[in-house]
Write a structure and sequence with these properties.
Layout lengths: L3 H30 L11 H5 L8 H10 L31 E5 L6 H7 L24 E5 L28 H8 L7 E4 L2 E4 H12 L3 H12 L26 H21 L4 E3 L5 E3 L6 H11 L4 H7 L6 H9 L2 H4 L26 E9 L7 E8 L12 E3 L4 E7 L2 E5 L10 E6 L12 E2 L4 E4 L12 E7 L2 E3 L8 E2 L2 E5 L6 E5 L2 E4 L9 E2 L2
Antiparallel strand pairs: 1-2, 3-4, 5-6, 7-8, 7-21, 8-15, 9-14, 10-11, 10-13, 11-12, 12-15, 15-16, 17-18, 18-19, 19-20
């Protein structure tokens, strides 16, 4: 039995122990309650405790930053969904000294990002998994080294979908819109290469040939001259409704042709990173914000060919520029694109395709990757010439064939277009574009074709050519798809590669190679 003195000492010890435990709990509670509740600390406690010792370790600092990016549940427990494009800026102040944070956009490739941010891929930090040679997944988080280039900050004015003749333009009633506007364009006519065409027909042709949105072409025309929504008798004397004023290029068709080319140069140049600046007529060069999207870069390129640097700032303004007119004519396009998938999904795969000629009728690979439709289009096409020993521009007896199943949606002026999803729209899904197909025995619009079905003969029809051949390109959702990386054309197992500049290149199947030569030689012969 404990003495009275021992009992007092034990009670004092227990009270002291209780007080220590209470004090420790109180301090722990205060420290824990001060932490940011939006962060999941359960997986990062060790990293937080070692943060001070990791100040100079970039990889560890990236890991610490990633802990702050744990997705939070939204109302209703739904998972946030990534959409094609967003107006929100993607360049955010980074906690990594000397680095800026960038979220990839639809169509981004590592090669293009290197060029736009003027860095090397080895210096880009990311904890995401992706294919270096492919299209990067939308929303991939990258830490990119800052450089000494300080371009003017810009917001995204137009989504990519507003530039190409794609899903947003499928079913657009061009004639109905122009006639309803009741402007000068409604009654306009012009002779184009020996053929009289209406204003609507001119806009439609330029739009189809270059795969540029007819809505955007109308917006530019209205912004520059008022031809779409207004009608003034003085407009009939205007040979330059866009304002280029070149003696070689009078009339609506020629001026819209230039517009389409400039938009294409800006759009596809931004896609591959070859056009990251705009140059004005006075020689001044402006570096574009590397976080912009291809659609805004295309508009910036076009307007730099029409305005001085000072006026360009005004027409590229969200408050007073051309996009104000665009919204007045068609509404807020940023809301529309939320209902659509990306133009170029990162998981996009080419469907199976065959060489565009019959077995037994061999062709030569005469051109590797080159422009799909002249200046402003990317290197999306390759050329095959029939090995029939007939020289010049004589229509070949050899057939051109369908490389995939589909529906013919265009057949004119040497062009045949096959819509692979057979929805009747050239603006959606995969499309095969053939050029220089003779009118002799040419397939007609509406015909459903299968692989190897005959669609016509190789010739020189439809464009400049020195000998009969067929020019083959692909589009997806209205956007020309490069014949080489990031999504190379594959025909009967032969993979297309670019080499030695435009028109150079080769086909590869395992360890077999066929090289492109402008003159038909043994090394360029392709047999099926």
């Amino acid at each position: 039995m404990m003495s009275k003195q021992e009992t007092i000492l034990l009670g004092f010890f227990l009270a002291l122990l209780f007080l220590c435990v209470a004090m420790g709990g109180f301090l722990l509670f205060r420290q824990w309650s001060s932490l940011d509740s939006s962060i999941d600390y359960s997986n990062t406690l060790v990293a937080i405790l070692t943060q001070e010792s990791a100040k100079d370790d970039v990889a560890t600092r990236v890991a610490l930053e990633l802990a702050k990016l744990t997705p939070q549940p939204v109302q209703g427990g739904e998972t946030p969904v990534l959409v094609e494009e967003t107006r929100e800026p993607t360049l955010i102040v980074s906690p990594l000294e000397g680095y800026q944070r960038y979220l990839t956009q639809q169509g981004d490739t590592l090669k293009a990002i290197e060029k736009r941010f003027q860095t090397q891929k080895e210096k880009i930090i990311s904890y995401s998994t992706y294919q270096e040679e492919g299209i990067l997944p939308i929303g991939t988080l990258l830490w990119i080294p800052e450089n000494n280039v300080s371009p003017d900050s810009m917001i995204r004015l137009l989504p990519d979908s507003a530039i190409v003749n794609g899903p947003l333009d499928a079913g657009f009633d061009l004639a109905g819109f122009v006639n309803g506007a009741d402007g000068f364009l409604k009654g306009y006519q012009e002779e184009v290469r020996g053929e009289w065409m209406t204003g609507v027909e001119i806009v439609e042709r330029v739009s189809l040939e270059h795969s540029i949105s007819p809505k955007l072409l109308l917006t530019v025309l209205e912004f520059q001259s008022g031809w779409v929504l207004s009608n003034d008798s003085r407009m009939q004397y205007d040979d330059f409704p866009i304002g280029y004023g070149l003696d070689c290029c009078k009339g609506l068709y020629e001026e819209l042709y230039i517009v389409a080319r400039q938009l294409g140069l800006g759009y596809y140049g931004w896609r591959d990173g070859s056009a990251i600046t705009v140059k004005f007529s006075n020689g001044e060069i402006l570096a574009l914000d590397p976080t912009l999207n291809a659609g805004t870069a295309a508009l910036a390129k076009l307007m730099s060919t029409l305005y001085t640097p000072e006026t360009w700032q005004v027409v590229m303004s969200e408050e007073s520029g051309i996009t104000v007119l665009y919204r007045q004519m068609y509404g807020n396009l940023w809301l529309d694109i939320e209902q659509l998938p990306p133009l170029l999904p990162d998981e996009l795969m080419q469907p199976e395709m065959e060489l565009p000629f019959l077995r037994g009728e061999d062709y030569h690979l005469t051109s590797g990757p080159h422009k799909a439709w002249g200046i402003g289009s990317p290197w999306a096409a390759i050329d095959f010439a029939p090995a029939d020993m007939i020289k010049g521009c004589t229509v070949s007896p050899y057939w051109v064939t369908a490389s995939a199943n589909g529906m013919v949606v265009r057949a004119e002026n040497g062009v045949v277009v096959i819509d692979l999803d057979q929805d009747g729209f050239e603006q959606t899904g995969w499309v095969l574009f053939y050029l220089h197909v003779s009118s002799k025995d040419r397939v007609s619009v509406g015909t459903v074709v299968e692989v190897d079905d005959k669609i016509g003969h190789a010739s020189c029809e439809g464009g400049h050519a020195t000998g009969s051949h067929v020019h083959l390109a692909r589009k997806y959702n209205g956007e020309w798809v490069l014949a080489d990386e990031p999504l190379p054309m594959i025909l009967s197992g032969w993979i297309v590669h670019a080499d030695r500049g435009e028109y150079g290149g080769y086909l590869q199947k395992e360890n077999q190679f066929i090289f492109a030569y402008p003159y038909s030689i043994a090394d360029s012969l392709v047999e099926r």
